[in-house]
Amino acid sequence: MRSPLAPGVRFCSSFSRDSWYRSFTLFLTFLSYTAYHLSRKPISIVKNELHRNCSMVIRPADLNTTDNETWCDWAPFDQDNYKTLYGMLDNSFLVAYAIGMFFSGIFGERLPLRYYLSCGMLLSGLFTSLFGLGYYWNIHSIWYYAFIQAMNGLVQTTGWPSVVTCVGNWFGKGNRRGFIMGVWNSHTSVGNILGSLIAGAFVSTAWGLSFIVPGLIITFTGVLCFFFLVESQFDQSSFSLCRKAQPSRKSPTHYIEGTEREPLLHSATITEVTSSTSSHATERSEEDHTQAISFCGALSIPGVVEFSLCLLFAKLVSYTFLYWLPLYISNVAHFDAKAAGDMSTLFDVGGILGGIAAGVVSDYSGGRATTCCAMLLLAAPMVRMVAGLMLLVCGGLVNGPYALITTAVSADLGTHESLQGNSRALSTVTAIIDGTGSIGAAIGPLLAGLISPTGWNNVFYMLISADVLACLFLSRLMYKEVRGWCSRT
């Protein structure tokens, strides 16, 4: 008597091939952008090690130096202008990222996404590792580190338009898009958390490894993308059609979608499959020749300008926390570099929950702009309460709108009805929205570096003002959504 099919095999066979490709693409793009953020986080952790209070550090017995105040610091960050130099490093990355993002979407619409994403990840791994190698090569030039940061910012623009386009290709419009993308967008916070933990593990002993290890991780992930990423459903269906058109040499039976079919294909069937393959090839040719949307054309899509300007201020707040929160915790709570980095991960955990909550609420209500405004208004007074478990709440309210705009909103606008079915707009729209937000990401840490010497309270007032301005830019769209609800009622 034959035993029944194993439960695990039965469970796996209950899903179609399309479902497996869809799930694997979601997982691989999640892994990819986790690696991107993992490689960005170390600089905020290492800042606490580059300039320390040397009077509280035990000096090695074999160290010969007459400088009692800065002997433990890493030049050129051993001077009083170290915060200015930190701001220079942050903005070298963020300004290059903001400028490059506007062009990245245009390239992403015209190049194979698998090649584009893989090359970007390999180069990101290279420049991240080069920053860490400055520790072992004993490099003390600010221009070396600033150049590496700028180049890293430029190549990292390949990531976001590529992964959002891949996910948008597999997950069309539906009442669960916000939830799916909210869960998927947790890669940002997961990457930040892993980046903090990995960098913190090496920062006190050899801070160069805090960059080299993340650099190797993103390089390995880029290799995975090159070999396994399926950009869209058509790539998968084309592969399936090619397999169907080829008779098996080892068995007289033909398998389609994992089930046994008729014996060897008859000539009529071969002709039918070949014809089907040809028709799909024609469709692919027509798709390839669909004119990619222009920059001005993308700006004319209703809602793109409003959400882009809102993201500018929302991302200003988020990235100020990303780059300065560990230093703030270290200065105020007097934690060491590792403990401050570990504490800052609570903010990112809250970001995961906030992104999912924003997606669920916007799916249920149908109001993307209203959801963003509500969370931004609640976040405004909360940014001052960054202590203990309040970091969770603050992280959720700050990163919720940011996550919603860069994922579900970008996908909605990139497939807007005004495009009349043009599928080659998603990458450009995503790049415009995230590129505008990246301008705020560059301004926020710069302002924090300039304002923090006058007191941390002034930094928090700046963040509150940014949240309020972000709400104002969505007020027109929120009014339209509320008016639509009232008319239906």
Structure description:
With 489 residues, the protein is mostly helical. The chain has helices at 7-13, 17-40, 42-50, 82-110, 113-136, 142-155, 159-170, 177-184, 187-202, 209-228, 233-244, 267-288, 295-299, 304-333, 337-365, 368-382, 390-414, 426-451, 456-473, 475-488, and strands spanning 253-256, 259-263. It has a two-stranded antiparallel sheet. Strand 1 and strand 2 (259-263) form a beta hairpin. Helix 3 (42-50) packs parallel to helix 14 (304-333), helix 8 packs across helix 17 (390-414) and helix 18 packs antiparallel against helix 19.
How is the topology of this model organized?
Elements lengths: L6 H7 L3 H24 L1 H9 L31 H29 L2 H24 L5 H14 L3 H12 L6 H8 L2 H16 L6 H20 L4 H12 L8 E4 L2 E5 L3 H22 L6 H5 L4 H30 L3 H29 L2 H15 L7 H25 L11 H26 L4 H18 L1 H14 L1
Antiparallel strand pairs: 1-2
Helical amount? over 70%
Could you tell me the strand content as a percent range?
Answer: under 5%
Arithmetic mean pLDDT = 81
C-alpha end-to-end distance: 63 Å
SS class: mainly alpha
Taking all Cα atoms into account, the compactness measure Rg is 25 Å
Order of strands, main sheet, comes to 1-2
Keywords: Antiport, Endoplasmic reticulum, Glycoprotein, Membrane, Sugar transport, Transmembrane, Transmembrane helix, Transport
InterPro entries: MFS, MFS_dom, MFS_trans_sf, SLC37A1_2, Sugar_P_transporter
Organism: Gadus morhua (Atlantic cod)
Catalytic activity: D-glucose 6-phosphate(in) + phosphate(out) = D-glucose 6-phosphate(out) + phosphate(in)
